[in-house]
Monocopper oxidase-like protein SKU5 (Panicum virgatum), 598 residues
Amino acid sequence: MRRLLALAASLLALRAALATDPYAFFDWDVSYVTAAPLGIKQQVIGINGKFPGPVVNITTNWNVVVNVLNDLDEPLLITWNGIQHRKNCWQDGVLGTNCPIPSGWNWTYEFQVKDQIGSFFYFPSTGLQRAAGGYGGIVVNNRDVIAVPFGRPDGDITILIGDWYNKNHTDLRKMLDKGKDLGMTDGVLINGKGPYRYNDSLVPAGIEYETFNVHPGRTYRIRVHNVGTSTSLNFRVQGHTMLLVETEGSYTTQQNYTSLDVHVGQSYSFLVATDQNASSDYYVVASARQVNESLWRRVTGVAVLRYSNSRGPAAGPLPDPPQDRDDRSFSMNQARSVRWNLSAGAARPNPQGSFRYSSINVTQAYLLRGEAPARVGGGRRRRAALNGLSFVPPETPLRLADAYGVEGVYTLDFPERPPPRGAAPRVARSVINGTYRGFMELIFQNDDAKMQSYHMDGYAFFVVGMDYGEWTEDSRGTYNKGDGVARSTIQVYPGAWAAVLVSLDNVGVWNVRSQNLDSWYLGQEVYVRVVNSEDAGNKTEMAIPGNALFCGQLHKYQKEQTPHHRMGVSAAAPRSPSAVSRLVSAALLLAGSVMLAP
Ligand SMILES: *[C@@H]1O[C@H](CO)[C@@H](O)[C@H](O)[C@H]1NC(C)=O
Ligand SMILES: *[C@@H]1O[C@H](CO)[C@@H](O)[C@H](O)[C@H]1NC(C)=O
Ligand SMILES: *[C@@H]1O[C@H](CO)[C@@H](O)[C@H](O)[C@H]1NC(C)=O
Ligand SMILES: *[C@@H]1O[C@H](CO)[C@@H](O)[C@H](O)[C@H]1NC(C)=O
Ligand SMILES: *[C@@H]1O[C@H](CO)[C@@H](O)[C@H](O)[C@H]1NC(C)=O
Ligand SMILES: *[C@@H]1O[C@H](CO)[C@@H](O)[C@H](O)[C@H]1NC(C)=O
Ligand SMILES: *[C@@H]1O[C@H](CO)[C@@H](O)[C@H](O)[C@H]1NC(C)=O
Ligand SMILES: *[C@@H]1O[C@H](CO)[C@@H](O)[C@H](O)[C@H]1NC(C)=O
Ligand SMILES: *[C@@H]1O[C@H](CO)[C@@H](O)[C@H](O)[C@H]1NC(C)=O
Ligand SMILES: *[C@@H]1O[C@H](CO)[C@@H](O)[C@H](O)[C@H]1NC(C)=O
Ligand SMILES: *[C@@H]1O[C@H](CO)[C@@H](O)[C@H](O)[C@H]1NC(C)=O
């Protein structure tokens, strides 16, 4: 159960450094639970027995303490999509910065949501586990003293949408390991539930669906996150307009949409007025986009919006998706219409636009070309790459290796430009050497035939441009120099590019990844290492936390922990420290690791 304590002074005193900001405590038991969202029973990942997990409801600058017990039978890490972890990549929860939590162990995350507001989500980051759940929403409320660019909504609703496979994550992993494609997903879930029976022949009876209960004449803030594996989803609420107000921590210029494409890993919040008559309930729809529609015959995600005075169930056809089959610019134009509200304050009272990104000179530019998975070596194994390099998670987390002077874990020679097309991907552990306080341009070029989205941990970046075709130096002339929105996940259409700018003011080693789980698992990620060589103390980067886990070449520093399972899984034999490193190796295998070429 969620414990949220408004804290004792003694505890605050112990945590002297951050003493003035409140703490929120959470105790999570992450275990398998049985569910049948599309009518087929499977093991999904729950938190405290619930799938999806609880909403983390916190406020700017709060300190968040989450004690995670890994009650699964495999290693686990939770990552916090869009939370910036300022100076503190030790809490980021990806294999480049953290050793995975062994099965049966607990580990406590502690981080501050410094200078952030907005809508984010968390999920398990290793080994395709997100395809089995383990995710939930994060709401970072504004402090009361900060003005918000819209009236206080009457309710706040988190909506997690995502494609779903009836195969579990371990079977999906095996498919990728054998060089197979995951193929089409089996449907779309809304808040972990299958579709309302909008069509008797498509949707079997007995599927549990999500209902959002509302009152007429009110305004609700709905926060929509695509937590799925690889499918872009068009989100819409029948009969209602959706006023877009925020995305991933930035207030947008407010605009009405009848539907919006939400790509994998993206978050948006909308205001929805319950201003329609209550003659019936209304459909809430998340339908697949940018898929081959003659092949996509799977169920659409459908939930129900129910007014308290509703006179009957929703019926009839679902509201139409955009009719843009022959217009590939429609979705991209919609993406371009998402702009930053320059005059609104966000976590601080000063206007978002007071950071004039266009007046800063770019100091480093990387053109990152993503390619469809291709075979490496002679085997059946396929790898996905950025600039021809397919990343393998390190056995020793990168920043931990830095702190302990372990050499040879990675190289700092990631190429600024992609190699000529056609070469087979190479497996590597090459990292981008980011210059502290530099201003970096990242251009993502999507050579794959499917939609991609890319995310950067530790930062929000400015989305300055996207277009079909090949990015060239001239493309810079088309950049949005005024109100490109700051966010952390950007979609990249097939055969197109997207450019972002990022101010490298957060020291640490930060993951840049494909949000599509299969591409990520197959190596489409890199890290940006940002180091302040002048910091001799702990000013620009926090010290390694006292409870840090050690693995790989540093496993000798790891103290034993008696495993304790609370639910589902039966207790495993106690593990010795050397068993820990075996577990870590297992995690790396799970993460799709292959041997590095000598
Ligand atoms: C996944 O399904 C396979 C059967 O297809 C089963 O052997 C395996 O134990 C399942 N894994 C989990 C974690 O439920
Ligand atoms: C979330 O926290 C805010 C501010 O503390 C509070 O007003 C709101 O009721 C909370 N929402 C939920 C769903 O608990
Ligand atoms: C594990 O949880 C216990 C209490 O439930 C706590 O005392 C301990 O510090 C936790 N260990 C870690 C490494 O977080
Ligand atoms: C249900 O779906 C099937 C298959 O797509 C379609 O042929 C049929 O017309 C739909 N029925 C209704 C009532 O919409
Ligand atoms: C959005 O639509 C509502 C009606 O549904 C209208 O009242 C409002 O003015 C519109 N807002 C904008 C910014 O277009
Ligand atoms: C209620 O709204 C529906 C859908 O917009 C419309 O078809 C219907 O005529 C309306 N009923 C009344 C009583 O206004
Ligand atoms: C969609 O799939 C069908 C059947 O495999 C194929 O014939 C068609 O070319 C595909 N369309 C596109 C746009 O890829
Ligand atoms: C931008 O934010 C301001 C609040 O600072 C608000 O008054 C204004 O309506 C917003 N503009 C748009 C276009 O959303
Ligand atoms: C940016 O570069 C231009 C030309 O190299 C230079 O004149 C200008 O002073 C630089 N601006 C800043 C803010 O450094
Ligand atoms: C990384 O960049 C810094 C400047 O930020 C430079 O001093 C250092 O030599 C670079 N390291 C490598 C290995 O290129
Ligand atoms: C940084 O923090 C660590 C752990 O708290 C401490 O051991 C170390 O002395 C600090 N370094 C400096 C220079 O303050």
Residues 57, 59, 141, 156 surround 2-acetamido-2-deoxy-beta-D-glucopyranose (ligand 2) (CB under 6 Å). The chain has six helices and 32 strands. Residues 357-531 form a domain with the Immunoglobulin-like fold (CATH 2.60.40.420). Residues 1-14, 569-598 have pLDDT under 50 and may be disordered.
